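Incident review: delayed structure delivery

Summary: a single-chain prediction request sat in the queue longer than the usual turnaround. Root cause was a stuck worker, restarted by the on-call engineer. No data loss occurred. The affected request and its eventual output are reproduced below so the record is complete for anyone auditing the incident later.

Affected input:
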Amino acid sequence: MRITGKNLKTIVNGLSVSYNDNGPADAPVVIFIHGFPFNKSMWDEQMNTLQDNYRVIAYDVRGHGQSDAGEQNFSIDLFTKDLLSIMQALSIEKATLCGLSMGGYIALNAVGKYPERCEALILSDTQCLADTYESKGKKMKAIAAINANGVEQYAEESIKNLFATESFSTKKTEIAAVRAMIVGTSSKSLSYTLFALSERKGTCSKLQDIKIPVLIIVGKEDKITPPTASLMIHEKIQGSLLKILDHAGHLANLENPSEFNLQMKNFLHQITKKPVQMVLARRLVMNVI
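Output delivered after worker restart:
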C-alpha cells in the first residue's frame, strides 16, 4: 500500500533510502534527483507546484540527506541502479526524471540504460561531458581539503560558485539552506561522491539516441555547468527545448523558481495532457540564446 508524505523510508539495495511522495496515485509520475552535495529538500517548491496534478517523488541519493551511504564505492552507475530500485520499490513502471547537475548525470545514465522506464527528461544545470584532467584534479584537491579542513570550510568555498552574483543579496534564505545541506553531508559521502563524479563517463555520444521529450534549463550565470554545456545537449537531442534563466546560477530552481516552475509546468502539460498552443512553442524557442 502506498504511503504519502515527507521523509518516508524504503529499503533499496540493502540501504535505507529517504524520500518524499505526494500527489494522486494514478497521475503521471515525476521523480526529482538532486545535485551534489544537496538533498531532496532542494525540490520542495517544485514538489508543491506539481503535486495537485502529478505524483511527485524526491529522494536522497545514497550518502546524502537522510539516506544511508553503505559500504560500496560510489559511482553514477550505482546511483542509477538505486534509482531503478526505488522505482521498483514504489511500483513505478515509468516516470519523467528531473535532475539537476549530478541528478542530470544520473537521469542521462538512466535513460541510456533503461529507456523504457523514462517518460521524459528535465535536465537542469548539467552536462554530458566527462571530467577533463583539470576538473579531476580540482576534485582531488577538494577531497584533500575536506579531509584536512573539514566540511564547513568546503561548504563556504562551494557556495561562492553555486549562485549568481545578485543571489547573494536576494536569496539569503536559500543560500543558508544550501549551506546547511552541505554541512549536513558527511565528509565520507562528500569525498566518495566527488570521486564518483570525477570518474563518470561522458554521455554526449548517446544523446542522439534519446527519443523522448526533453526540457533543458540552465541559469544564465551558471559557473559550474554554463549555458554552453546545456546548448551542447540541446543540439544533440532532436526536438529538445532549451530555456536559459536570468537571475540564476547553478541552482536555477532555487534562484529563479517562478520561471523554472513555469517552464516545467508548460513542458509537463505538453507531454501529458494536450498540445501546447503554437504561440507558447514560439515563445520557448525565442527565449533560447
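Verification: The two ends are 46 Å apart (CA to CA).
Action items: add queue-age alerting; document worker restart procedure.
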